[in-house]
Every structure is written in C-alpha cells, then in structure tokens.
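User: quick one, sequence for these tokens?
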C-alpha cells in the first residue's frame, strides 16, 4: 500500500478553515506518513490580500509550521511548502517544496481568476475573449507551459484548473482536438523539466468535478512519457485531507501509470501501483 500523505494543504493562514495544528492532528489520526503545508504565496492583485500570505502573515506561517515540526516530530513528518502562483513575486525564503500554479490569465493586463466564481468567470470570457473559451485556454496553457521555470516549483499544481466549472457550465469542449492540442503542448513543455505533476482531487471534494485534475488524455501522456505524479487533495479543511485518494490511485492505474510519488524522509519516494 502507498503511504498516505498530502502536500497541498491550506490553513487559516490563507483561505483554509483549520489551523495548521488541527490539520497535523487530523493527519496523525488518519495514519498519514507526512503532511505538507502549501499556503498561497503573495499576489500583486487587489482581491488577494484576504487569501494570500505576505509580510507578517507569511513569517508567522513559517514560524508556526517550524514549531509544529518539532512538537510532532515523533508522530508525523511535517513539510513546509508554499503554493506559488505564476504571478507571485520571486520568493526569498527556503521551503521544503514548492507547488507552482496558474490561477489567473491576464488578457489586456487584467487579472482574471479561473477558479473563483463561475458566473464572473463566464462573464469575463465574454468581455475579454468575445465568448471564446478556447482563446482563454490558449492564454492559460501558455502560462502553464512556463510555470516550472517561472516559479521554480517541484510540483505543478492542478494542471487544467481552467476546467474547474466545466462539468456544470460546459464552456469548453474538452474532447475537441484544438483544446487537447493546447493542453498537450503545455504538458510536453512542462515534462521537459521532469517536475512532479499533481493528481489533484480538490474539485471533486468541492463537488465541481467527477475526476481529479488532470483528465485522462493528459494522464495517459504523462504515463507514456514516464512523467511523475503525486496525489494531492488541495484540502481547505481537515476533513478533506485524503479526499478521493483511493479513487485517484485506481484512476492513475487505469491511465497507465505504474507508480506514484509520496513525500517521505525529506524527499519524494516512488511507490509502485501495479
Ligand atoms: Zn491552487
Ligand atoms: Zn491550493
């Protein structure tokens, strides 16, 4: 069995519901081998103060996770990470790992969040892309293709976040070859640096998607190219720490992946799933 771990976790330091200590206690009671925190890095956009960490909040986050590492050292491995957005300023502090994510596109210099509010998002597609979601996808995936070099991340977060609301709102045809080419091109660009790629169950936990990010055609390409994947829950509360993990392992296997990676002993270890 693959040891249970989650490196994509949000707390009250950004937009999560639980404190880091509550998360650690939940992880211990779930028998997890490790738990990693990935608070949202600073973003230079007006609406981000409420859910991003900068200044004192960031330094308190770091202190808190450091002290929990010591306090719970005999019970669980704790990792200090950060979720760095494509548009976050360059970090200066060291982390155990970094998740690199694209949450915004910037048509005409205006930041548009792809994962916050579906009605606003659809409206923005109309206003900035003439209703053409494929044009937005082009912008989105061109940022994703650079996310490893720009954020210097270990893990690529929710690869196709722009589809978060697509099962309900149907703004993109994910079976369309034009769409798939854009996504595959970005994936091939990312795979050159061999980062870990998330199999992220967060939108399933929130009732937005029936499968993890990314979808089958992308996971199959990752498997073909011997890319490395890691399951994460993008948890914003303790009760969702391992949401959908069993299904995600089965899904990974069905896409042709032969192993998954888990954070253990200060690094990423490979575990066979066949
Ligand atoms: Zn994210
Ligand atoms: Zn996140």
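Assistant:
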């Amino acid at each position: 069995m693959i040891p249970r771990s989650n490196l994509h976790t949000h707390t009250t330091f950004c937009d999560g519901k639980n404190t880091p200590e509550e998360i650690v206690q939940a992880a211990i009671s779930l028998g997890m081998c490790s738990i990693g925190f990935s608070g949202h890095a600073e973003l230079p956009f007006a609406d981000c103060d409420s859910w991003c960490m900068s200044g004192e909040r960031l330094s308190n986050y770091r202190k808190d996770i450091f002290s929990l590492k010591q306090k719970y050292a005999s019970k669980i491995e704790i990792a200090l990470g950060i979720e760095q957005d494509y548009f976050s300023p360059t970090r200066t502090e060291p982390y155990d790992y970094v998740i690199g994510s694209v949450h915004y596109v910037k048509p005409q210099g205006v930041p548009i969040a792809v994962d916050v509010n579906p009605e606003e998002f659809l409206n923005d597609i109309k206003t900035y892309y003439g209703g053409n979601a494929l044009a937005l996808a082009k912008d989105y995936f061109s940022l994703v293709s650079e996310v490893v070099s720009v954020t210097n991340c270990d893990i690529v977060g929710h690869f196709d976040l722009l589809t978060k609301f697509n099962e309900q709102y149907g703004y993109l045809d994910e079976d369309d070859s034009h769409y798939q080419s854009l996504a595959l091109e970005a994936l091939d660009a990312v795979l050159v640096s061999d980062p870990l790629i998330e199999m992220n169950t967060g939108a399933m936990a929130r009732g937005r998607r029936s499968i993890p990010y990314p979808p089958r055609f992308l996971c199959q390409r990752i498997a073909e190219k011997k890319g490395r994947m890691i399951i994460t829950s993008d948890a914003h509360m303790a009760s969702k720490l391992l949401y959908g993990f069993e299904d995600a392992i089965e899904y990974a296997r069905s896409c042709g992946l032969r192993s998954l990676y888990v954070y253990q002993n200060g690094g990423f270890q490979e575990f066979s799933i066949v």
